[in-house]
Amino acid sequence: MEEPDFGSMEITVVGLGLIGGSFAMALNKLKPKRIWAVDVNSSVLEQVEKTGVISKGFTEASIPLQSSDIVVICIYPELAVQFVKDNLAYFKNGALITDTAGLKEQVVQEISSVLREDLSFVGGHPLAGKESSGFAYASEEIFRGANYLITPIDGTKNESLRLVERLILGLGCRQPIRMEPHKHDEIIALTSQLPHVIAAALMNSSGSEDTGSFVGGSFRDATRVARMNAELWSELLLENKDNILEQIDVFTENVRLIRTAIAEKDQNSLKEMLENAGRGREKF
Amino acid sequence: MEEPDFGSMEITVVGLGLIGGSFAMALNKLKPKRIWAVDVNSSVLEQVEKTGVISKGFTEASIPLQSSDIVVICIYPELAVQFVKDNLAYFKNGALITDTAGLKEQVVQEISSVLREDLSFVGGHPLAGKESSGFAYASEEIFRGANYLITPIDGTKNESLRLVERLILGLGCRQPIRMEPHKHDEIIALTSQLPHVIAAALMNSSGSEDTGSFVGGSFRDATRVARMNAELWSELLLENKDNILEQIDVFTENVRLIRTAIAEKDQNSLKEMLENAGRGREKF
């Protein structure tokens, strides 16, 4: 396949939060013809226009969509689906649409089911983020070396898939990993959602005591993501209910096994469980 | 109180593992007259002597103890107690002894109960460490800005307490925090032991799947300390059994509350718990 000619393309980023803002910044590396942005907040658009990261911002999506070869949707999962439905008539003929939502099965299924024949959609999920949200914290650095999952389905055009992959590599991410949407949601429940649940539960366990002065690196690291965007994360957890409940149960059972070994002063079992964890962690 | 004249003092470090080795390195900043080391492993002693970090190493503690004004014991809690008992006759008259064990109540009580009248013991616990153990990973940097807990008891001489505090500040740590030994063990169950239990349980939950490519920062951070020294940590957890069991139960209950909100699709409660965690985390 030839290299895509990003220099002749117009790209629209929908949503200039942390991920969308970072995306817009990193897209500049590809030197596309234009980078447009859509956001509901006109003052954010003005501010970002001034930085030169985007050519122009719009609160009305229909304008930039009509000339955009690629559209990157960086808003909450439910809103992403709604955005495609609401603006279906405006997408440029043959445009490629991708998103960055942390859950894929429902988003991919709903968008695919309404998509015009000439359009392509490839779901994506950058494993990149920060504890703070909003454009003020955006940085192209969040993509550097980051894992990026994409979720093609039967019928996804090979050409669209390759274009998304080149785009992602161009941001500075690693070679994206392809997986089925339902598999994505299963895995992410373990590798991303469960650690967020744990961080919140651990933080909530510390009560009102001033533990700040007594914490070492272990508590600090384990609770880093407790500063999550509660609005977004409560939505993500509820939409992936079955998978996250299963992971919570597996985790709780593993905590229980360690608890039992401690309660029974069973040093051999305890040591074995700790060693097993250490061996697993060494692999990455 | 006058500044202690470290330049006239001899200091012995017992145990040249990660903490003892780092201690010996950082002690050089105080420019003491001599830094001795005691270890059971003569090849480690030879190796460290060559680096110039210590003046000389001994497998036989009686020799350096006789002239040491300060003795820093950096070995496992039970061994630390045994070391003091076994070498009680050799300590220099009026010497100050401190340790770095991650648990304090039992160590402080046992050492204090056998201590000679002329000697002082002040329990200490640097909240500093790494996932790897041994002198090869030692670095004075682990103390930079680290929290350091000390556990004086009734009868601890003010002069000894001040000397330990100056020593700790000299390593590059923050102003040490004084607390009762039993309080230390309670707090450390939450701020250090529980995160280690969680990291191990989370790692053990990931099963045999190759999750390495799918993890984002949240999983990586939450499992960092899973690469703990299993021998040491199984001992620490068992010796602090009642406190860690209580903390595990509080944590498990907080996980259960989040689980219930997800299972019942109760977005308000879920969001509230996540927000509460975020507010707590912002404080440090």
From TrEMBL, chains A, B:
Keywords carried by this UniProt record: Oxidoreductase
Domain Prephenate/arogenate dehydrogenase, chain residue ranges per copy: 9-284
The keyword Protease is annotated on this UniProt entry: no
Classification via Pfam families: PDH_C, PDH_N
Membrane-spanning parts: none
PROSITE patterns, alphabetized: PDH_ADH
Cited InterPro entries: 6-PGluconate_DH-like_C_sf, NAD(P)-bd_dom_sf, PDH_C, PDH_N, Preph/Arog_dehydrog, Prephen_DH
Pathway recorded for this protein: Amino-acid biosynthesis
SUPFAM superfamilies: 6-phosphogluconate dehydrogenase C-terminal domain-like, NAD(P)-binding Rossmann-fold domains
Keyword Oxidoreductase: yes
Family the UniProt entry places it in: Belongs to the prephenate/arogenate dehydrogenase family.
Annotated protein name in UniProt: Prephenate dehydrogenase
Species in which this protein is naturally found: Dehalobacter restrictus (strain DSM 9455 / PER-K23)
Lineage of the species this protein comes from: Bacteria, Bacillati, Bacillota, Clostridia, Eubacteriales
